[in-house]
């Protein structure tokens, strides 16, 4: 690296503080009051179901917009996971401990925390039931239960097989327990592939399910960072074995990314890589782990493809307790997910119930960045509902995916269904090292120290 480069990079990293501050304060959604003034002083009872990304931010923000409300958060996980960091564990750049904090340390003191499992919702009675306390009533309910994985929807596969027989999933975690193994499993998987590829041609299949998924773009990280690892780049600095690697990327639909212009950038990158073949309209139906054969449904035909290594993004669905509740969509493409107005985030039938995070039955929006934007909407809309006023805020579908194009470069894809929603006024379609630095060094710290406290 020449001196000029060194200087400019160092200067830029120094400027990162300013940059992240502006990122945190910038307005990418239609939210205009990120640090709102209290909007209701009434003494009401708010229950928040779930203590992941969405529930925790909602608790912090509602504590400000409804300062006299009694807020109870119900979630069993004593450890809080920064799930976005699991990919950096897989890439050998974080350890899993970096992604974990005690829930108690992140939660505002005035929020009551019940470390319990919700076992039923009764919105007609304004109550829910937990495994320990029984029935709990509320004036307002905020649902933030996230999603559960359903590996078993793939014949021959179950969650205990992840990490065995050359099968990995960087997604592997348990939000109810607050534990994650996916990063370490995938790190080991990459190492095993390297060893295999030193001797012979190695076929890897990466799959995505036909359900909504959280953390859109994570499979692309596996492909691109994987290739760099096999080239001997990143923290590994080993022999280049990439000539022996063949990746297939099996997608049930016919696009690499849910927003066309980002798809185009990613498609170009995939063509440059040369060893990645997209398999469009290929839905993983079955895995024969013993014989290393993955069976796909493609154009109504079953196709068997042999692999040496398999990475699976699990099918996802709303947690059972929610799927079975009156708050869920009964049928249609969001069956089991929360039936909210996609803009106000208020339940369509029960007007004292709001929702945010992965549980929502809306297109896109299953990212931590979306939960952050949705919490801003709920902060003001719920306070307005308490005051019997019209709901002032509307979520615009903001979704974010920092696609790790290579070690040292990220394509910061910020978008909704209709358009790109870049936080910064620079070309959003260009991968940049500065987004990598932000993603790797700034976002996790900002997540724990600012986002969790409703400060960004
Ligand atoms: C590998 C990976 C990479 C990702 N990458 C990114 C990224 O780069 N950028 C990004 O923005 N997002 C990313 N995400 C997505 C992001 O982590 C999620 O969108 C976000 O965590 C959603 O928050 P949530 O609160 O809705 O759900 P979660 O954070 O999953 O929390 C769910 C909560 O509900 C609780 N719960 C569930 N059932 C019950 C019950 N019956 N009773 C009580 N509590 C219950 C759980 O204990 C937990 O507290 C990634 C996710 C993964 C797994």
Mind explaining what this structure looks like?
The structure is a single chain. The protein has 456 residues and is an alpha/beta fold. The chain folds into two domains: 3-76 and 115-147 and 318-398, FAD/NAD(P)-binding domain (3-Layer(bba) Sandwich); 149-317, FAD/NAD(P)-binding domain, CATH 3.50.50.60. Helix content is 28%, strand content 22%. It has helices at 3-14, 16-25, 53-65, 86-90, 103-106, 182-199, 218-230, 260-273, 320-323, 368-386, 433-449; strands at 45-49, 70-74, 79-81, 100-102, 112-114, 118-122, 127-130, 134-137, 140-143, 148-149, 167-168, 173-174, 179-180, 202-207, 245-250, 276-279, 283-288, 293-298, 301-306, 309-312, 316-317, 353-355, 399-406, 409-415. The chain has a five-stranded parallel sheet, covered by helices on one side. A hairpin with a 4-residue loop joins strand 6 (118-122) and strand 7 (127-130). Helix 2 (16-25) packs across helix 11 (433-449) and helix 3 (53-65) runs parallel beside helix 10 (368-386). The longest helix is centred in the C-terminal third of the chain and has 19 residues, at 368-386. The chain is globular and about 70 Å long. The model is unreliable at 1-15 and 17-30 (pLDDT under 50). It binds flavin-adenine dinucleotide. The site of flavin-adenine dinucleotide (FAD) has 39 residues, from helix 3, helix 4, helix 10 and strand 23. Residues 1-31 form the signal peptide. This is FAD-dependent pyridine nucleotide-disulfide oxidoreductase. Residues 45-163 form the FAD/NAD(P)-binding domain. Pfam families: Pyr_redox_2 (PF07992). GO terms for molecular function: FAD binding; sulfide:quinone oxidoreductase activity.
């Amino acid at each position: 690296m020449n001196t000029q480069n060194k200087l400019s990079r160092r200067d830029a990293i120094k400027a990162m503080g300013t940059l992240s501050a502006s990122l945190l304060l910038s307005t990418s959604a239609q939210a205009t009051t990120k640090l709102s003034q209290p909007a209701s002083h009434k003494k009401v009872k708010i229950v928040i179901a779930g203590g992941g990304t969405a529930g925790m931010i909602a608790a912090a923000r509602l504590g400000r917009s409804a300062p006299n409300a009694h807020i109870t958060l119900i979630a069993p996980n004593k450890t809080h996971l920064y799930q976005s960091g699991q990919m950096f564990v897989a890439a050998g750049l974080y350890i899993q401990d970096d992604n974990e904090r005690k829930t108690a340390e992140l939660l505002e003191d005035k929020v009551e925390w019940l470390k319990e499992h919700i076992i039923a919702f009764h919105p007609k009675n304004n109550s829910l039931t937990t495994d320990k306390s029984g029935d709990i009533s509320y004036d307002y309910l905020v649902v933030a239960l996230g999603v559960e994985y359903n590996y078993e929807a793939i014949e021959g596969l179950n969650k205990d097989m992840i990490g065995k027989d050359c099968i990995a999933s960087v997604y592997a975690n348990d939000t109810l327990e607050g534990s994650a193994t996916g990063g370490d499993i995938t790190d080991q998987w990459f190492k095993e592939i390297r060893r295999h590829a030193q001797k012979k041609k190695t076929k890897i299949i990466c799959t995505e399910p036909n359900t909504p998924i959280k953390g859109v773009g994570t499979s692309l990280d596996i492909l691109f960072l994987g290739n760099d690892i096999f080239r001997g780049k990143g923290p590994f600095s080993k022999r280049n074995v990439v000539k022996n690697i063949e990746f297939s990327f099996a997608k049930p639909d016919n696009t690499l990314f849910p927003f066309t212009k980002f798809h185009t950038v990613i498609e170009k990158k995939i063509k440059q890589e040369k060893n990645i073949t997209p398999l469009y309209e290929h839905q993983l139906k079955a895995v024969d782990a013993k014989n290393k054969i993955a069976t796909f449904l493609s154009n109504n035909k079953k196709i068997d493809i042999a692999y040496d290594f398999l990475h699976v993004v699990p099918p996802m669905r709303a947690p059972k307790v929610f799927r079975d509740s009156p708050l869920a969509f009964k049928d249609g493409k969001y069956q089991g997910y929360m039936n909210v107005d996609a803009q106000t985030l208020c339940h369509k039938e029960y007007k004292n119930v709001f929702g945010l995070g992965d549980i929502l039955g809306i297109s896109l929006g299953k990212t931590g960045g979306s939960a952050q934007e949705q919490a801003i909407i709920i902060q003001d809309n719920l306070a307005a509902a308490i005051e019997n006023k019209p709901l002032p805020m509307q979520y615009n579908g903001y979704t974010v995916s920092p696609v790790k194009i290579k070690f040292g470069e990220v394509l910061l894809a910020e978008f909704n269904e209709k358009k790109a929603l870049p936080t910064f006024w620079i070309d959003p379609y260009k991968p940049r090292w500065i987004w990598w630095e932000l993603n790797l060094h700034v976002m996790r710290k900002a997540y724990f120290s600012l986002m969790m406290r409703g400060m960004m």
